[in-house]
Amino acid sequence: MLSALRSQGGRPGLPRPLPRRLVLSVPAAVPRSGDGAGEQLPALRRPERRLPPPPADEVQPAWPTSPRRQRQRQPAAEQPVSGSIAGGGRLTAQLKAASSPEKVVQLVQQAEVGCSAADLTTAVNHLVKLYQRDHCIGDRCRAAFQQLAQIALSQQLDHWSVAQFFWAAGKLWEGVAVMQPFGDQQVAWQQRMTAAFAARECKPQSISNGLLGASKLGWRLEGSLAAAADAAVHRHATRMTSQHVCNTLWAFANAGWAPGSGASAALLQRLEQVLPQAQPQEVSNSLWAMPKLGLHPSDSLQAAFGQALQHVISSATSQNLANILLACGKLHWSPGGRILAAAVAAMQQLLAAGAVKAQHVCNFLWGLAELQEHLGIKLPAELPALLAAAAEWADCRWAQLSSLNVVDLCYNLARLGHRPGSTWVVSVTEREWGHQLQRSELEQLVPAAVDHICATWPEPGRGSGLRLAECLTRQTGFRAGPDCPAATAALECRLLPLVCADIDLIAADQLCPQIGKLPYLAGWAATLAAIGLRLPEQQLEAVCSYVGRHPQLQQGDRRYFEKAFRAWGCQPGLALLGQMENDI
């Protein structure tokens, strides 16, 4: 339904946020599509420079590789003590053999003082294994975790145990709308994390695992916790493996945290050293993190990435390839014609085998188109075959693809010069690419699109509604009002209440959208203002209050908020942004 609206992709009508640059020689971008080279663009009306829309789902790469504990035994003081049911390692063995979350909790409770910090760590890790075997018991695993977290507060946990509690929480609550694994003890656990990072004996893997979990839970990295994390990363970066470095970068980027300049420099320096040993997903995740963090790789780091990509492209998954080329497109950096050709060939093989997801194909093609448009490089000779394979793959699965996948695929194929056949979105494919929709067309498409979005709400990524609003800002002259009664009623009466409910959840720290809390709020504020809608006073106050609690506002988000506040005449919001600017 939305493909007609999305003829030119991008963050419709919104100013393109500038990547934050660190005073290092390294590139900047965010995860979306793949990468391309320079042939003549299709006969599209070339839009003004803009940021293409984020993927509808799976904006971020897969979870980094499962952390492995350092190969060293716990100190003797941390070994299990004989208890009511176990002595020595017997409790550990029983926990690993437990068949249910309830059994895990029962074993811990029966052990009483015989349950050590190491046993508690084993217990929460086993909950993750049980959950991975059967996602249907997710609620039971999460309830068991909360009981163990409460018990653990009476224990002296070392840095490893604290980190594993966070890592396990991130795994168990992944994709859950309301993430409160520690309940009303969140402050106590935050203090434990801060102390763990500050501990002299803290190890690199504890740092990366702890940050991974906190990142997945949508925690804010600020104050003493941020200072401890920065100091720990800076202190231990030289001892990090490729997995530690890449997972740490991924954690920062995924949560939208801004590492200090010292920590960033140390991580990038170490990344350059460990890339030769990195696995495909580690290369993919670390490159994906660069634009998200506003970093632009130095020449030497680009060379290291290029060499690493030569080794991993052939064994990369479709998601790895998509994230690699997505980052290249965001950074406007080409890894070289040979690597691009290998990536295109690898993706074509995966398409033929059916081992891809729609979002991966969209992201891959997006990156290729970005490189072609911005760098003018010649795309690989294998590209036409890939485009034909992508169109054929999608055509066989048309009924299975979401409306946003359809929009992205049509748009990116068109940018690369391949027009989908007539079976694609029958209602809109007859229109020329770049066509501005007529008011009568919008009156039909917008209500239908809103109905589709509302029927699947709440989707985990929370992207469809925002994408629709952004698409509408690209339609010249569209404004909610009496000229478009059906579209306005659909947006105002059916979609806006859902947005307001999301804002209330974010303000209460009960929701973390896939793109991040502040980018989500900023995106909605700017797009609603651009199409003539206004947030109710209650939600506007909640947005201002939330922004005021987060002084580390990124430049693009600040610009979006300012645009919305000016359009709405929100003086408190403008004053808040001004005060935050003065405090920097």
TrEMBL record:
InterPro entries listed in its UniProt record: FAST_kinase (IPR050870)
MF annotations from Gene Ontology: RNA binding
GO terms classed as biological process: chloroplast rRNA processing; mitochondrial RNA processing; regulation of mitochondrial mRNA stability
UniProt name for this protein: Uncharacterized protein
Region described as Disordered: spans on this chain: 1-87
Gene Ontology, cellular component aspect: chloroplast; mitochondrial matrix; ribonucleoprotein granule
PANTHER family, per the entry: FAST LEU-RICH DOMAIN-CONTAINING (PTHR21228), LD45607P (PTHR21228:SF40)
